[in-house]
Design goal:
It is built from four helices and no strands. With about 100 residues, it is mainly alpha-helical. The protein is elongated.
Length: about 100
């Protein structure tokens, strides 16, 4: 079975009715005739924009800081690299405390 009725003929009366309602509302409020708004709108919060910018910046950043790696490699090769055992101990304790807090809390 073939249906020969055009969907446009079915939709046109509804479309015309909606346009007339918009025109009536504009006439009551005194607004100039405008075409009714069509389509969907999306608004993005400032925080979402900031997240997007941060993600883009992080994605474009190199994973390895070559300048720092090269400087440390040179120090190790020359025998001038000094390990600060106090800093290492402090960082280990901070890390341990953070792990314990996350397990407890």
């Amino acid at each position: 079975m073939e249906i020969k009725t055009s969907m446009q003929k079915l939709v046109d009366p509804y479309t015309q009715q909606v346009q007339n309602q918009h025109a009536d509302k504009r006439a009551v409020t005194g607004q100039a005739a405008q075409a009714p708004a069509t389509g969907d709108r999306v608004s993005v919060s400032a925080q979402a924009k900031l997240y997007t910018e941060a993600y883009t910046a992080a994605s474009n950043a190199p994973e390895v800081r070559q300048d720092k790696v090269a400087a440390l490699k040179t120090q190790v090769d020359n025998g001038t690299y000094q390990v600060d055992s106090r800093k290492i101990a402090e960082k280990l304790l901070q890390s341990d405390l953070a792990i314990n807090e996350s397990l407890e809390g």
